[in-house]
Design brief:
443 residues, mainly beta, Immunoglobulin-like, Methylamine Dehydrogenase, Chain H, 2 domains, four-stranded antiparallel β-sheet, 2% helix, disordered N terminus
């Protein structure tokens, strides 16, 4: 079916797309409760996504090692597990990145190592091709500048930053030891330009095309400053978003067109941000995908000067006073519009958010030859009280052709509708129309 959706704004402020939670659809959840539990019953840490031979996978860290999960038909299947050199309830953090057909893994606790896994044998298994503590035992985070074949190792053995040449992916070589900052917690790097998150020393930007690196920008004093933890650069390089891992501090959105004059241009926090802590972020198509401890996945539209939260899903259901539980990592499969979210206690979650469709709605009309979301076209309306919405579809003669009392804030448009113009109406529990619109069905 070809649907031409004509959206009317006269009856309501706006229509946006929403599913389970708010504007996101939970597709699958995976966990393994047999693994060693650390403090607060934490088992899992960071997640990274990758594709091999057209299949998407997730690499998830736990107290014991690396879990590899295949994503097929929007479902998780664990296909392999590799133990870390150090496995213990003390392990709180493992981090992953990919280069070519190889997965690089580090751990920030104990007698650990750099591990490199060959992914070529998937979907059957992965193989360990490197496991050595020659360059470092522990590292908090890693990032790979894939354009330059360089592995950036943050806080190797708790000091500075180490850059390895991985032109030969399974035989790393030392490129440069950077000690201009005592501790680099995390980083984002593209074409030798490195955004370094340096804790209480703020954000420092360097170019490492030559040795020693050249400083391009510095942001060591800014409003709401806390522990500068992690960040991500937009695809057009115009915005950089970073997170202070400090209770009560908002997410910072920067204008990054001029690195020497980089500054915070706007802030975002959840409505209860003063009681919570943000952790990690990725950016795609003017959306910031944020992992918030204890508050779950948050999707923020950063296109305008006033950032706007357009979707969320809180997967942490336990009661706790500890502020660093719950969601840890986030990864976006851009083309498939799938989101991986790791939770320290509850494992790995797979979500869908209609990124392209949502952005197209800025034009107030959309023509598509494919279903809106998943396998069915949908009428979707955001509502904090989505358990009591009523959806109705009428033909051009005013006859009711579909009706549903929804326990959610979306419905599928029946695909068996005859060609023609249809009107839909959405009512609240008092049967008052709160939204309406028109679409054309063409088979």
């Amino acid at each position: 079916m070809k649907i031409i959706f004509i959206i009317f704004f006269g009856l309501f402020h706006s229509i946006i797309f929403a599913q389970t939670g708010f504007n996101v659809e939970l597709l699958d959840h995976w966990t393994d409760t047999t693994r060693i539990k650390g403090p607060e019953d934490a088992i899992f840490s960071d997640v990274w996504g990758f594709s091999i031979n057209g299949i998407n996978y997730a690499a998830l860290g736990s107290t014991e090692g690396t879990h590899i999960l295949k994503i097929e038909n929007n479902q998780f299947e664990e296909v392999d597990f590799k133990p870390g050199k150090f496995s213990s309830l003390l392990v709180q953090h493992r981090d992953y990145k990919t280069y070519k057909n190889f997965l690089y893994a580090v751990c920030d606790e104990g007698q650990s190592s750099l591990q490199i896994f060959d992914l070529s044998y998937l979907p059957d298994s992965i193989s360990t091709v490197y496991d050595s503590d020659y360059f470092f035992k522990t590292s908090h985070n890693i990032f790979i500048d894939t354009n330059k074949a360089k592995l950036y190792v943050c806080a190797p053995n708790n000091i500075g930053l180490r850059i390895l040449d991985i032109s030969n992916p399974i035989l790393p070589q030392l490129y440069y030891d950077f000690n201009g900052v005592g501790y680099v917690h995390d980083c984002y790097v593209t074409n030798d330009t490195a955004f370094l998150n340096c804790g209480f020393s703020g954000l420092q930007i360097y170019n490492f095309s030559t040795i020693p690196g050249m400083q391009l920008g510095l942001l060591d004093f800014y409003a709401g400053q806390g522990y500068n933890h992690s960040g991500w650069l937009s695809e057009d390089r115009k915005k950089y978003v970073f997170i202070d891992e400090t209770e009560g501090e908002k997410i910072k959105i920067c204008d990054s067109k001029s690195l020497i004059n980089i500054e915070v241009s706007s802030l975002y926090g959840t409505k209860d941000y003063e009681d919570y802590v943000a952790h990690n972020v990725q950016i795609y198509s003017d959306f910031a995908f944020v992992s918030y401890y204890n508050e779950g996945l948050r999707i923020v539209d950063i296109k305008t000067n006033k950032p706007n939260e357009v979707a969320y899903y809180d997967m942490f259901w336990q009661d706790t006073k500890y502020k660093l539980n719950g969601m840890w990592g986030v990864y976006v499969f851009k083309e498939e519009e799938l989101i991986l979210a790791s939770d320290r206690q509850n494992g790995l979650f797979l979500f869908h958010f209609p990124i392209k469709l949502y952005r197209n709605l800025q034009n107030q009309a959309l023509v598509t030859n494919s279903p809106f979301i998943d396998q069915n076209s949908q009428i979707i309306y955001p509502s904090e009280q989505s358990n009591n919405l009523y959806f109705s579809i009428y033909d051009s003669n005013g006859k009711t052709v579909y009706k549903e009392e929804a326990l959610k804030d979306w419905i599928n448009i029946p695909l068996n509708l005859a060609d023609g113009v249809y009107v839909y109406a959405i009512s609240n529990i008092y049967l008052e129309i709160i939204a309406a619109g028109k679409f054309v069905a063409i088979n």
